[in-house]
Every structure is written in structure tokens, then in C-alpha cells.
Amino acid sequence: MGHEVWTQGDESSYGILLLEMFTGKRPTSDVFQGTSNLDNYVKAALLEQVVEIVDLVLLHEKQEGDMSANQRLTKASTTIHIKFEESLISILENGIDCSTNVHGERLDIADAMAEMCRIRNKIRADHKIYVVLSM
């Protein structure tokens, strides 16, 4: 209010929104006190515990989709699970890159959108491979 519009503020807000949507946690949550914040929470879990920090609603929907598409545990479903985790990591990294506190290091919003489109297209391609493999 009363300040000049600043595109990097939009980038930061977009990054925080991505992190909120995929973790189900708000940056103002009681979990984040002192020096802890949503960015640090995601960064700490990103590579080894990404599934543990993702909102359970997202995981539940993915598991239901896996069960209805194919009841067997196959190489294809294992591959799709790995691709799912890789996609989550990419999305959360995009959120972190947009919301970093170092203004000069924030991902430009156009680049952030291009990255999300790349991730979406990769998910679509991976899904087509999964459908073919599970037949």
C-alpha cells in the first residue's frame, strides 16, 4: 500500500504460494518459529524426504490413481513413483528459487512460469509412457 509495484515481490509471493500449496503449510504456522521458515523447512527435506513434507491430500490422490490404474506393483509403477518424486522436487525447487530472501537471486517470474510448463509437459510425457508400459 502506497509503494511502487515491484515485480520481485510477485516472484516471492508466487514462490511462497507454490510451497504452501504443495506442503499444506502456511508460512505463518506455529511450526515456524525463530529462524525457521517455510523455505528452510522445504530445503531441509527436499532431496531425501520430499514425500514426507508434501500435503497428504496430494499423496492420497496419487495413490488412488495408482490403485485404480493398476493394482500390481510393476516396474512401470515404480518408475512412475520416481518420476512423481522428481516432479515434486522440481516444483518445490521452483518455489524456493522464487521466494529466496536474496532479491538478486530470485528466479524471474517468466522463467518460473517456463519451468512450470516444462515440468507439466514432462509429467504428461511420463504419464503417456506409464500408460503404455502398464498395458
UniProtKB/TrEMBL annotation:
<protein>
    <submittedName>
        <fullName>LRR receptor-like serine/threonine-protein kinase</fullName>
    </submittedName>
</protein>
<dbReference type="GO" id="GO:0016020">
    <property type="term" value="C:membrane"/>
</dbReference>
<dbReference type="GO" id="GO:0016301">
    <property type="term" value="F:kinase activity"/>
</dbReference>
<dbReference type="InterPro" id="IPR051564">
    <property type="entry name" value="LRR_receptor-like_kinase"/>
</dbReference>
<keyword id="KW-0418">Kinase</keyword>
<keyword id="KW-0675">Receptor</keyword>
<keyword id="KW-0808">Transferase</keyword>
